[in-house]
Amino acid sequence: MRKPRVVILGAGYGGLITITRLQKQISVDEAEITLVNRNDYHYETTWLHEASAGTLHHDRARYQIKDIIDNNRVKFVKDTVVSIDKEAKKVVLENGEVEYDYLVISLGAHPETFGIKGLKEFAFGITSIDSARQLREHLEYQFATYNMEAEKKDERLTIVVGGAGFTGIEFLGELGNRIPELCKEYDIDFKKVRILCVEAAPTALPGFDPELVDYAVNHLQKKGVEFMIGTAIKECIEDGIIVAKGEELETIKAGTVVWAAGVRGNSVVEEAGFENMRGRVKVDGYLRAPGHDEVFIIGDCSLIINEEINRPYPPTAQIAMQQGETCAKNLAVAIRGRGEMGTFTPDIKGSVASLGEDDAVGVVFGKKLVGTKASFMKKMIDNRALYMVGGPSLVLKKGKFNIL
Ligand code: FAD
Ligand code: NAD
């Protein structure tokens, strides 16, 4: 009898936890496992703000997939998923096709642009190693070019960050460290630089503890960040943005615009025809797509409702990794046709936002933390993610030990 074919799409947090758990739970005779990922490396999405600002080399934020998976049990295919034909149970890749009996979709998020004109063309994103390298180089180019021009254009040194959610705030924290370094390296007076965060909501970090929001905003303001709160980006143009505060429109010239104003599920999910909300599929308790018991969807492509407030949980690595554990268990049950599947309930331990190298704000196990304690905790969380996937050796190779 043919072995069931399990195909896992995406080697991010959700995909790698699923694979590392599944390869231990089932034997080679029980299933044929294939992992498909665009790159032959995994990157820590949660470290991309550092790689994008240039405070951490991008190689520190990635590692080879072959060093993590059991290559005797898992076939790795380096390719890009183009589409999913859920009726024919096959996945179309840029360079071929794979058929499945069980599918795991863990392809992560895409930026949510809300259809705002010009963002796709002119704004940078914090989405991958490629985008991080491009943004880091662009920032450096702006500083390197400034003194070369006969007529100096100060707007070249204006950096706009759209969105003061966790991603925007963490990126601003890194800029707070990186920009003074760039000024020194390229003989530029820091006063010429403008770092501007534009946030549509009435506060930065909407929904987060107000005291911690104040701490974060004050910290970033001291580092030179200017906030435009209650102001929405309406359009991105070649040399800046157009914002709206109430009825009034304003054009702000900027050499760099970074869009960090939210995410939606991977477009492959929407295009495959699963019922979805902004690319995220409301999965059942066992993490399966409605009407498709053979398709598991986890991480940023899935939608889990927080029953207490009747709203979706924000997509996080924390949830993606927990889902990976349940998904592996449920796949093993499905493959064997016996046992009981586990239902998924997020166990939210807290959240911490870094504010550069040695500061942060967060709530962990219900306790508020700021400053070096919070920063220590953030590094522990980053190291824990490495440990969960690759054990102590991965922590030793890639871990953050610059702990105060
Ligand atoms: P990902 O980990 O993003 O992995 C998706 C994988 O799929 C990637 O390897 C990608 O290359 C691959 N892929 C995508 N499309 C294709 C395709 N078409 N074909 C083949 N492969 C493809 N969450 C936290 O809990 N804590 C944090 O501190 C935190 N910090 C963050 C900081 C930043 C800057 C950002 C942007 C996000 C942060 N998040 C954090 C959110 C967290 O990163 C995501 O929720 C998490 O990465 C989701 O995991 P995932 O497995 O769904 O996707
Ligand atoms: P987000 O949705 O959390 O925040 C986006 C922000 O952009 C919001 O504050 C929103 O009001 C603002 N915004 C939207 N449209 C705008 C516009 N036109 N102009 C100006 N502002 C606009 O998105 P995110 O920060 O990218 O985070 C994505 C997910 O990743 C979230 O679930 C978040 O919790 C998670 N994350 C977690 C961490 C962490 O735990 N340290 C870090 C980064 C991201």
TrEMBL record:
<comment type="similarity">
    <text>Belongs to the NADH dehydrogenase family.</text>
</comment>
<dbReference type="InterPro" id="IPR036188">
    <property type="entry name" value="FAD/NAD-bd_sf"/>
</dbReference>
<keyword id="KW-0560">Oxidoreductase</keyword>
<dbReference type="Pfam" id="PF07992">
    <property type="entry name" value="Pyr_redox_2"/>
</dbReference>
<keyword id="KW-0285">Flavoprotein</keyword>
<dbReference type="InterPro" id="IPR023753">
    <property type="entry name" value="FAD/NAD-binding_dom"/>
</dbReference>
<feature type="domain" description="FAD/NAD(P)-binding">
    <location>
        <begin position="5"/>
        <end position="324"/>
    </location>
</feature>
<dbReference type="InterPro" id="IPR051169">
    <property type="entry name" value="NADH-Q_oxidoreductase"/>
</dbReference>
<protein>
    <submittedName>
        <fullName>NAD(P)/FAD-dependent oxidoreductase</fullName>
    </submittedName>
</protein>
<keyword id="KW-0274">FAD</keyword>
